[in-house]
Design brief:
The chain starts with 7 loop residues before the first helix and ends in a 13-residue tail after the last strand. The strands form 4 sheets. It has an 8-stranded mixed beta sheet, with no helix packed on it. Strands 3-4-7-10-11-14-15 form a 7-stranded antiparallel beta sheet. The chain has 9 helices and 20 strands. The protein has 3 domains: 89 residues, no CATH class; 140 residues, Jelly Rolls (Sandwich), CATH 2.60.120; 71 residues, Phage tail protein beta-alpha-beta fold (3-Layer(bab) Sandwich). The radius of gyration is 21 Å and the shape is globular. The protein is 30% helix and 31% strand. By secondary structure, the protein is α+β, with helices and mostly antiparallel strands. This is FecR domain-containing protein. InterPro entries: FecR, FecR_N, Ferrdict_sens_TM.
Length: 334
């Protein structure tokens, strides 16, 4: 199997499907292990594919409690070493036990993640949605359109091609339309204070629902930042940076020149542990790196070491301060 950036999920799905048919041969087991160890993204994709296998056929018919039991019952047997590694990775990357499809009176389907959870949802037409932590979408299909509403958070959309049935994602006052592509839409206000659209492959059209701003066509490796103050701003995104921006799919957060204050706000989306920065000068320090989204304390210790700061913790608060500032907490984590 050949691993290219956009095909990792497909390769992971193929491995999971192969394991589901029958036990792997010794040669196949060695090949899978080698693929998993070759790139951290591979294991994240493998865990997501396993989660999809465990829930796809039963998600629409099960209540949340029954889904818990079905998930455990449907996981295929594996060698102990990979099972342990899979279980640890799955806990950090994706949780589906209490999350499933919810039908509302409007006939639509709602999918949601809790804080710290990542969920990949297969749709009826072959498309898929990957939901970031603390996110929610509404899915409503008709014969002529595929309508998605991003109600909260961030999601990646892998769209099955169907020119006669456009796939439209609405986020606040912005519509993103595609017929077959891969793109992410975010309401997390990390950079733009509005809607962010990031295209991984293909072409999408970005429009303002009210018609105040002229429509914009966006191609792969470009980002659109849309809000009422500046309209729709377009900027290029190098391939490596694009993959880093989507690192949340593997339970990671990537920063490339972001301030500590921005990073602290991002970690709060994945953990109840709050990073507190009282000094604006400290908050304005810029960082570069890839960090586990579920480990804000580890992040704080790492940046403190590299920037010459002090880390203090009390309960669910972690403070970052300069060494010459008065200690705020009695308990130091240095």
């Amino acid at each position: 199997m050949r691993a290219d950036v956009n095909g990792i999920d497909d390769i992971a799905a193929a491995w999971v499907a192969r394991e589901d048919r029958a036990p792997l041969t010794a040669e196949e087991t060695a090949s899978l292990d080698a693929w998993l160890e070759a790139d951290a993204r591979h294991f994240g994709a493998y865990a997501r594919a396993q989660a999809v296998l465990a829930r796809t056929d039963r998600a629409r018919a099960l209540s949340a409690g029954a889904m818990d039991r079905a998930f455990t019952a449907n996981v295929p047997a594996r060698p102990a070493r990979r099972m342990l590694r899979w279980a640890v990775g799955l806990a950090a990357v994706v949780s589906v036990l209490a999350i499933g499809v919810q039908r509302q009176d409007d006939g639509a389907e709602y999918y949601a993640t809790r804080k710290g959870e990542i969920l990949r949802v297969p749709l009826q037409d072959g498309s898929a949605i990957t939901l970031d932590s603390d996110s929610q979408v509404r899915v409503s299909y008709s014969d002529t359109r595929r309508d998605i509403r991003l109600l909260q958070g961030e999601a990646l959309f892998d769209v099955a091609k169907n020119p006669g049935r456009p796939f439209v994602v609405r986020a606040e006052e912005t519509d993103v339309t595609a017929v077959g592509t891969s793109f992410a839409v975010s309401l997390t206000e990390r950079r733009s204070g509005g809607v962010e659209v990031l295209v991984r492959e293909g072409i999408v059209d970005v429009t303002d629902v009210q018609g105040v701003v002229a429509p914009t066509r966006l191609v792969a490796n470009y980002r659109a930042l849309a809000n009422r103050s500046h309209g729709i701003r377009i900027e290029p995104v190098p391939s490596d940076d694009l993959q880093q921006q989507l690192a949340w799919r593997e339970g990671m957060l990537s920063f490339n020149g972001d301030t500590l204050s921005v990073a602290a706000a991002q970690f709060l989306r994945y953990s109840d542990t709050r990073i507190v920065i009282d000094d604006p000068l400290v908050g304005s320090r810029r960082i570069v790196g890839l960090y586990s989204a579920s480990d804000p304390l580890g992040f704080a210790r790492s940046v403190a070491l590299s920037l010459g700061l002090v880390v203090e913790q009390q309960g669910n608060e972690v403070r970052l301060r300069s060494p010459d500032a008065a200690p705020h907490m009695a308990r130091s984590m240095q």
